[in-house]
Amino acid sequence: MLKEVIATRYITPLREGGSLPGLVEADDLGTYVMKFTGAGQGRKTLVAEVVCGELARRLGLRVPGLVTIGLDPVMGLGEPDQEVQELLKSSGGTNLGMDFLSRALGFDPLAFTVSPEEAGRVVWFDALVNNVDRSWRNPNMLMWRGDLWLIDHGATMIWHHNWPGARTSAAKPYDASDHALAPFAPDVAAAAAELAPLVTEDLLAEVTAEIPEEWLADEPGFESSDALRRAYAEPLLARAVDIHARVELKKGEK
Q: pTM for this one?
């Protein structure tokens, strides 16, 4: 299970993100980028972060370490910013934290070079989870200590916002024409040959087991959290088989 920590100090909001994540200190003396259950799409965004972040890590991609962060909503009472105060007050309980990569630089495709092999691995992974938020406008990647790191996976697996249509949604191709790594000739076929065999039922069961129980409670249409965990795994297992053949790197081209 994800490491559990308790927030001890709210440092500052990070206004680059639409959901207003914040930088916090925790009782393990770590510094984390915290995402809140009271923001945006709520707990489903955090579920997507856990599933995709932990899956990416197991596939050998670089993602910041994840933790769960316990938050006492009383912390919000001392915040002068009304928006931040309301967010903290509405997010009591278990939230999500990501290791803060100090002095990391935002990825700029004009300033950094990525090999076709690494670009292919990232594009294949984004196709697998249907990441619609890795465009050149908003890469959601960092350069840290000379390496490429992936962040912000809240806008993935869009089918989990409409479970009755999940099977149809998950069967769609992936448009990578605006992907931030499209200019680097990503070798998606090689990535699929390497990574697709690793996406097994056992691996996905391990990944979905990392989702905190309280983020799965009371989901309409599911009799148990285990059933919901399986629902998260099934589209990914199906897409891993052939999504590489349905990646569109240029408009109208595969």
A: 0.95
Q: Report the C-alpha gap between 177 and 175 in whole angstroms.
A: 6
Question: Residue 7: in which H helix or E strand, if any?
Answer: strand 3-13
Per-residue pLDDT of the chain (254 residues; tens, 9 = 90+): 899 999 999 999 997 756 789 999 999 999 999 999 999 878 999 999 999 999 999 999 999 999 999 999 999 888 899 999 999 999 999 999 999 999 999 999 999 999 999 999 999 999 999 999 999 999 999 999 999 999 999 999 999 999 999 989 889 999 999 999 999 999 999 999 999 999 999 999 999 999 999 999 999 999 999 999 999 999 999 999 999 999 999 865 55
| Residue 223 CB burial class (10 angstroms; 0-12, 13-18, ≥19) | exposed
**How many residues belong to the chain?**
254
